[in-house]
Design a protein that fits this description.
The protein has 241 residues and is an alpha+beta fold. The protein is 36% helix and 22% strand. The protein has 2 domains: 76 residues, Nucleic acid-binding proteins (OB fold (Dihydrolipoamide Acetyltransferase, E2P), Beta Barrel), CATH 2.40.50.140; 159 residues, Recombination protein O, C-terminal domain (de novo design (two linked rop proteins)). The strands form 2 sheets. It has a 5-stranded antiparallel β-sheet with strand order 3-2-1-4-5. It is elongated.
Protein backbone atom coordinates (compact mmCIF):
# COMPACT_ATOMS: atom_id res chain seq x y z
CA UNK A 1 0.00 0.00 0.00
CA UNK A 2 1.04 3.61 -0.48
CA UNK A 3 0.08 7.16 0.43
CA UNK A 4 1.39 10.67 -0.25
CA UNK A 5 1.29 13.47 2.31
CA UNK A 6 3.25 16.35 3.76
CA UNK A 7 4.86 16.27 7.18
CA UNK A 8 7.03 17.99 9.76
CA UNK A 9 10.21 16.26 10.86
CA UNK A 10 10.23 15.35 14.54
CA UNK A 11 13.37 13.20 14.56
CA UNK A 12 15.53 10.89 12.47
CA UNK A 13 17.18 8.05 14.38
CA UNK A 14 20.02 5.85 13.21
CA UNK A 15 19.08 2.41 11.89
CA UNK A 16 22.03 0.29 10.90
CA UNK A 17 25.00 1.77 9.06
CA UNK A 18 23.25 3.68 6.30
CA UNK A 19 19.54 4.00 7.08
CA UNK A 20 17.43 5.89 9.60
CA UNK A 21 13.95 5.81 11.09
CA UNK A 22 12.15 9.05 10.28
CA UNK A 23 9.46 10.29 12.67
CA UNK A 24 7.11 12.95 11.31
CA UNK A 25 3.79 14.63 12.03
CA UNK A 26 1.83 14.37 8.82
CA UNK A 27 -1.18 16.41 7.77
CA UNK A 28 -3.55 13.50 7.13
CA UNK A 29 -1.89 10.44 8.69
CA UNK A 30 -0.87 11.75 12.10
CA UNK A 31 2.41 10.99 13.81
CA UNK A 32 4.08 8.40 11.63
CA UNK A 33 7.38 6.59 11.34
CA UNK A 34 9.10 4.93 8.43
CA UNK A 35 12.49 3.78 7.18
CA UNK A 36 14.54 6.09 4.97
CA UNK A 37 17.04 4.03 3.03
CA UNK A 38 20.37 5.79 2.91
CA UNK A 39 19.00 8.35 5.35
CA UNK A 40 22.33 8.79 7.12
CA UNK A 41 24.12 9.75 3.91
CA UNK A 42 25.01 13.30 2.81
CA UNK A 43 22.08 13.39 0.38
CA UNK A 44 19.61 13.44 3.27
CA UNK A 45 21.67 15.28 5.89
CA UNK A 46 19.94 18.65 5.48
CA UNK A 47 16.53 17.21 4.56
CA UNK A 48 15.79 15.10 7.64
CA UNK A 49 16.35 17.84 10.21
CA UNK A 50 13.74 18.55 12.93
CA UNK A 51 11.38 21.36 11.97
CA UNK A 52 11.66 20.88 8.21
CA UNK A 53 8.48 20.45 6.18
CA UNK A 54 8.62 17.62 3.65
CA UNK A 55 6.59 15.97 0.94
CA UNK A 56 6.42 12.27 1.73
CA UNK A 57 5.55 9.01 0.07
CA UNK A 58 5.10 6.02 2.37
CA UNK A 59 5.06 2.45 1.06
CA UNK A 60 4.57 -0.85 2.85
CA UNK A 61 3.25 -4.29 2.01
CA UNK A 62 0.78 -4.15 4.90
CA UNK A 63 -0.67 -1.17 6.77
CA UNK A 64 0.70 -2.31 10.14
CA UNK A 65 4.30 -2.54 8.84
CA UNK A 66 6.90 0.14 9.53
CA UNK A 67 7.13 0.90 5.83
CA UNK A 68 9.57 3.14 4.00
CA UNK A 69 9.56 6.86 3.27
CA UNK A 70 10.83 8.81 0.32
CA UNK A 71 11.06 12.47 1.18
CA UNK A 72 11.76 15.83 -0.41
CA UNK A 73 12.14 19.09 1.47
CA UNK A 74 9.51 21.78 0.89
CA UNK A 75 10.57 24.23 3.56
CA UNK A 76 13.93 24.00 5.28
CA UNK A 77 14.29 25.53 8.71
CA UNK A 78 17.40 23.56 9.65
CA UNK A 79 20.05 26.26 9.19
CA UNK A 80 18.25 28.75 11.42
CA UNK A 81 17.29 26.17 14.05
CA UNK A 82 20.80 24.76 14.39
CA UNK A 83 22.28 28.25 14.71
CA UNK A 84 19.78 29.52 17.28
CA UNK A 85 19.69 27.89 20.75
CA UNK A 86 16.19 29.19 21.54
CA UNK A 87 14.80 27.94 18.23
CA UNK A 88 16.45 24.55 18.76
CA UNK A 89 14.97 24.29 22.26
CA UNK A 90 11.54 25.21 20.87
CA UNK A 91 11.72 22.60 18.09
CA UNK A 92 12.76 19.92 20.58
CA UNK A 93 9.89 20.81 22.92
CA UNK A 94 7.36 20.86 20.08
CA UNK A 95 8.59 17.42 19.04
CA UNK A 96 8.21 16.14 22.61
CA UNK A 97 4.63 17.42 22.70
CA UNK A 98 3.82 15.78 19.38
CA UNK A 99 5.16 12.45 20.69
CA UNK A 100 2.32 12.49 23.23
CA UNK A 101 -0.08 11.84 20.34
CA UNK A 102 -0.99 8.26 19.43
CA UNK A 103 0.88 7.01 16.40
CA UNK A 104 -1.03 7.16 13.10
CA UNK A 105 -3.94 9.08 14.61
CA UNK A 106 -4.78 12.11 12.37
CA UNK A 107 -4.66 15.56 13.99
CA UNK A 108 -4.83 17.92 11.03
CA UNK A 109 -5.52 21.07 13.06
CA UNK A 110 -2.48 20.35 15.23
CA UNK A 111 -0.38 19.81 12.12
CA UNK A 112 -1.27 23.23 10.74
CA UNK A 113 -0.80 24.84 14.16
CA UNK A 114 2.65 23.28 14.53
CA UNK A 115 3.68 24.33 11.03
CA UNK A 116 2.53 27.90 11.67
CA UNK A 117 4.33 27.95 15.01
CA UNK A 118 7.58 26.85 13.39
CA UNK A 119 7.30 29.85 11.09
CA UNK A 120 7.52 32.03 14.23
CA UNK A 121 10.89 30.70 15.37
CA UNK A 122 12.53 33.95 14.30
CA UNK A 123 9.91 35.96 16.23
CA UNK A 124 10.24 34.63 19.79
CA UNK A 125 8.03 37.38 21.27
CA UNK A 126 5.14 35.82 19.32
CA UNK A 127 6.34 32.23 19.70
CA UNK A 128 5.75 32.16 23.47
CA UNK A 129 2.00 32.93 23.45
CA UNK A 130 1.41 30.62 20.49
CA UNK A 131 3.28 27.81 22.22
CA UNK A 132 0.99 28.08 25.26
CA UNK A 133 -2.03 27.78 22.98
CA UNK A 134 -0.43 24.80 21.24
CA UNK A 135 0.08 23.03 24.57
CA UNK A 136 -3.60 23.56 25.33
CA UNK A 137 -4.48 22.19 21.87
CA UNK A 138 -2.50 19.03 22.64
CA UNK A 139 -4.48 18.61 25.85
CA UNK A 140 -7.76 19.16 24.02
CA UNK A 141 -6.97 16.71 21.20
CA UNK A 142 -6.11 14.05 23.78
CA UNK A 143 -9.40 14.52 25.62
CA UNK A 144 -8.29 16.86 28.42
CA UNK A 145 -9.36 20.21 27.03
CA UNK A 146 -10.19 23.10 29.33
CA UNK A 147 -13.70 24.57 29.31
CA UNK A 148 -13.14 28.31 29.05
CA UNK A 149 -16.54 29.19 27.59
CA UNK A 150 -18.26 30.35 30.77
CA UNK A 151 -17.89 30.57 34.54
CA UNK A 152 -18.16 27.20 36.26
CA UNK A 153 -19.97 28.79 39.22
CA UNK A 154 -22.34 31.30 37.62
CA UNK A 155 -22.44 30.63 33.89
CA UNK A 156 -21.22 34.17 33.17
CA UNK A 157 -19.22 34.69 29.99
CA UNK A 158 -17.49 37.94 30.93
CA UNK A 159 -14.49 38.70 33.15
CA UNK A 160 -13.25 35.12 33.04
CA UNK A 161 -9.87 35.51 34.72
CA UNK A 162 -9.38 32.23 36.60
CA UNK A 163 -9.35 28.49 35.93
CA UNK A 164 -10.29 25.91 38.53
CA UNK A 165 -7.42 23.42 38.97
CA UNK A 166 -9.94 20.74 39.90
CA UNK A 167 -12.37 20.99 36.99
CA UNK A 168 -10.36 22.79 34.32
CA UNK A 169 -13.23 25.25 33.88
CA UNK A 170 -13.12 29.03 33.77
CA UNK A 171 -14.17 31.11 36.77
CA UNK A 172 -15.23 34.76 36.67
CA UNK A 173 -13.57 37.52 38.66
CA UNK A 174 -16.52 37.91 41.01
CA UNK A 175 -17.06 34.21 41.67
CA UNK A 176 -13.37 33.47 42.05
CA UNK A 177 -12.35 36.37 44.25
CA UNK A 178 -12.81 34.49 47.57
CA UNK A 179 -10.76 31.56 46.27
CA UNK A 180 -8.17 33.44 44.19
CA UNK A 181 -5.07 31.93 45.88
CA UNK A 182 -6.28 28.44 44.98
CA UNK A 183 -7.13 29.21 41.34
CA UNK A 184 -4.98 29.41 38.23
CA UNK A 185 -4.79 32.66 36.28
CA UNK A 186 -6.49 32.72 32.87
CA UNK A 187 -4.62 35.12 30.55
CA UNK A 188 -6.75 36.61 27.77
CA UNK A 189 -4.29 35.55 25.05
CA UNK A 190 -5.10 31.85 25.41
CA UNK A 191 -8.54 32.32 23.84
CA UNK A 192 -8.77 30.76 20.37
CA UNK A 193 -9.96 34.03 18.81
CA UNK A 194 -7.34 36.20 20.56
CA UNK A 195 -4.94 37.95 18.15
CA UNK A 196 -1.38 36.69 17.93
CA UNK A 197 0.64 39.35 19.72
CA UNK A 198 3.47 39.76 22.19
CA UNK A 199 2.42 39.83 25.84
CA UNK A 200 4.19 40.95 29.04
CA UNK A 201 6.41 38.36 30.65
CA UNK A 202 4.15 38.12 33.72
CA UNK A 203 1.17 37.31 31.52
CA UNK A 204 3.16 34.79 29.49
CA UNK A 205 4.37 33.14 32.70
CA UNK A 206 0.76 32.74 33.83
CA UNK A 207 -0.07 31.08 30.51
CA UNK A 208 2.77 28.59 30.81
CA UNK A 209 1.80 27.90 34.43
CA UNK A 210 -1.75 27.12 33.28
CA UNK A 211 -0.83 24.76 30.45
CA UNK A 212 2.03 23.21 32.45
CA UNK A 213 -0.25 22.36 35.36
CA UNK A 214 -2.63 20.35 33.19
CA UNK A 215 0.12 18.79 31.07
CA UNK A 216 1.65 17.44 34.27
CA UNK A 217 -1.68 16.22 35.67
CA UNK A 218 -3.08 14.53 32.58
CA UNK A 219 -0.15 13.63 30.32
CA UNK A 220 3.29 13.73 31.90
CA UNK A 221 2.49 12.48 35.38
CA UNK A 222 0.42 9.42 34.38
CA UNK A 223 3.10 8.40 31.86
CA UNK A 224 5.96 8.81 34.31
CA UNK A 225 7.48 11.59 32.20
CA UNK A 226 9.01 14.88 33.26
CA UNK A 227 8.76 18.17 31.41
CA UNK A 228 10.70 20.14 33.97
CA UNK A 229 14.05 20.00 32.15
CA UNK A 230 13.75 21.07 28.49
CA UNK A 231 10.40 22.82 28.91
CA UNK A 232 11.51 24.78 31.96
CA UNK A 233 14.68 25.93 30.18
CA UNK A 234 12.70 27.01 27.11
CA UNK A 235 10.12 28.87 29.19
CA UNK A 236 12.89 30.71 31.05
CA UNK A 237 14.45 31.77 27.74
CA UNK A 238 11.11 33.07 26.43
CA UNK A 239 10.33 34.93 29.64
CA UNK A 240 13.73 36.62 29.58
CA UNK A 241 13.17 38.27 26.18
Amino acid sequence: MQWDDEGLVIAARRHGERDCILEVLTRAHGRHMGLVRGGRGPKHASTLQPGNRLTLTWRARLEEHLGAFTAEVVQSRAAFVLANPLALAAVNHIGALIRLLPERDPHEALYHAADGMLDLLAMPQLLGPVLVRFELMILSDLGFGLDLSCCAATGATEELIYVSPKSGRAVSAAAGAPYAPRLLALPAFVAEDAPIAAVPSETLAAGFALSGFFLERHLYGPRGLSHQGPRTELVQKLLAL
